[in-house]
């Protein structure tokens, strides 16, 4: 069996910077035609000059692969002038809103959602998408569900604003997705496959630890069914989020799961297992292209049911990253 995908897109990706970016960027750029690049560097990418320079470093690191970085700015109540400057860069995609402290490198995020209205109005008027890490500061298993009223409120107050609920992990978020025309969502590979049990039900698995935390079997099953069915508002966003091994295998494990190099192969295996290969194109590209009218570079990738073993670690440029399912064999690979 095999499948050829047109212009695969990763709608939520962390490429980091410096040596780490040099190691991980090709892992995505080899198979994806483009990706939405998250701005949570230290310091975060808040202005157009930083965004332009970061895009340049990413293109350098892509090492000749035809790969479009769809750049985001870290939400900071940007002014009309700042948004106009961003829009002048053809690689600019949208603003990413992090509640302060919700996840890795988000300390500079939004402290008071009540103060975001002016920028959100401008974004609605200018057609700039809003991407949100939607978690409260409540109990860890409830953080996404707690945040759903915020999504509902924003979707209602700004009906023309395209809002993406990033990396959804609950059946409740899927329900909300269907309730508002201007809500869209990304979902990761790991949240289609694992539950909290895989992370913490036995020996603790730091390489499966991310935010939002993996949830219940019923949530995982609902997300998987939605993806397999080619749900038109659900897009693949790996949230591939590399951390050096010493930040994961330690006391105080950083949140983030690294999946970029084999994400498409694992998705093909998953969709094939559930006789849903026909819907993979929509999930990894078609939905995103339609929702955002994207025109990524022409690129196809063929996946075949030839097994591959996920490496124990990815090494280079003085970096070492342990991926999800290190050392496991999966049934599909890139041809
Ligand atoms: N998902 C994660 O657990 N971590 C991401 C940040 C994020 O997407 O929330 C990271 O940058 O490491
Ligand atoms: Zn996030
Ligand atoms: Zn992320």
From TrEMBL:
Binding residues for substrate: 14-16, 40, 133, 243, 255
Domain Amidohydrolase-related as annotated: residue spans: 60-293
Coiled coil ranges: none
Pathway in which the depicted protein is active: Pyrimidine metabolism; UMP biosynthesis via de novo pathway; (S)-dihydroorotate from bicarbonate: step 3/3
InterPro entries the record matches: Amidohydro-rel, DHOdimr, Dihydroorotase_CS, Metal_Hydrolase
Active-site annotation: 239
Keywords: Hydrolase, Metal-binding, Pyrimidine biosynthesis, Zinc
List of residues binding Zn(2+) 2: 96, 133, 167
Cofactor descriptive note: Binds 2 Zn(2+) ions per subunit.
GO biological process, one term: 'de novo' pyrimidine nucleobase biosynthetic process
Protein residues bound to Zn(2+) 1: 12, 14, 96, 239
NCBIfam families: pyrC_dimer
Name of this protein: Dihydroorotase
Organism field: Akkermansia glycaniphila
